[in-house]
Design brief:
By secondary structure, this protein is of the alpha/beta class. The protein has one domain: 3-Layer(aba) Sandwich (Rossmann fold), CATH 3.40.50.2300. It contains five helices and seven strands; from the N terminus they run E-H-E-H-E-H-E-H-E-H-E-E. The strands form two sheets. It has a five-stranded parallel sheet, with helices on both faces. Helix 3 (58-67) packs parallel to helix 4 (87-96). The longest helix has 13 residues, at 8-20. It is globular. The N and C termini lie far apart (44 Å). 29% of the residues are buried.
Length: 151
């Protein structure tokens, strides 16, 4: 696990909750630059990124990680944590390639549920000219109608 929140205290608290949930290998990044460097190694099963005053746009940070082909961590699931989540900020983060979201303050129960969801049901990676990241669809929508594309 890789953890980076807006303050060291918040990051340490999240790391402590992850340890209580049974995870032992947790790296706390001091800041956004350290997060970007650490995730670039591509050795994490899951990363948590909080909203940071120093990162003007967390979505832009995630988009940069996802779209850089040399970035080993571009496939790492990233859970974004929001202090003030608005529909607009969630849509921007989702469209940048964030895997999932948590609204702060984070409780151990919510954290455990979110980790279980992300790790037990990984979504396929989608690559297109304008997007790289986890499939944004969260449910399997069965098409009803005529198959006009042929067999």
């Amino acid at each position: 696990m890789l953890v980076c929140d807006s303050t060291r205290h918040a990051s340490d608290l999240l790391a402590s909750m992850l340890r209580m949930a049974g995870f032992r290998q947790i790296t706390v990044a001091e800041n956004v630059s350290a997060f970007t460097e650490q995730i670039g190694h591509g050795s994490f099963g899951l990363a948590f990124l909080g909203d940071h005053p120093e990162a003007l746009n967390g979505a832009a940070l995630v988009r940069g990680i996802r779209t850089t082909e040399a970035q080993k961590g571009r496939y790492t699931p990233i859970v974004m944590m929001f202090s003030d989540a608005t529909q607009r900020s969630i849509v921007l983060a989702r469209d940048a390639g964030v895997t999932d979201f948590i609204r702060k303050p984070v409780s151990p129960a919510i954290l455990a549920v979110r980790v279980e969801q992300v790790l037990s049901r990984p979504r396929p990676v989608v690559t297109s000219p304008t997007y790289f990241g986890p499939d944004r669809r969260r449910r399997d929508a069965t098409f009803k109608g005529d198959n006009r594309r042929g067999s």
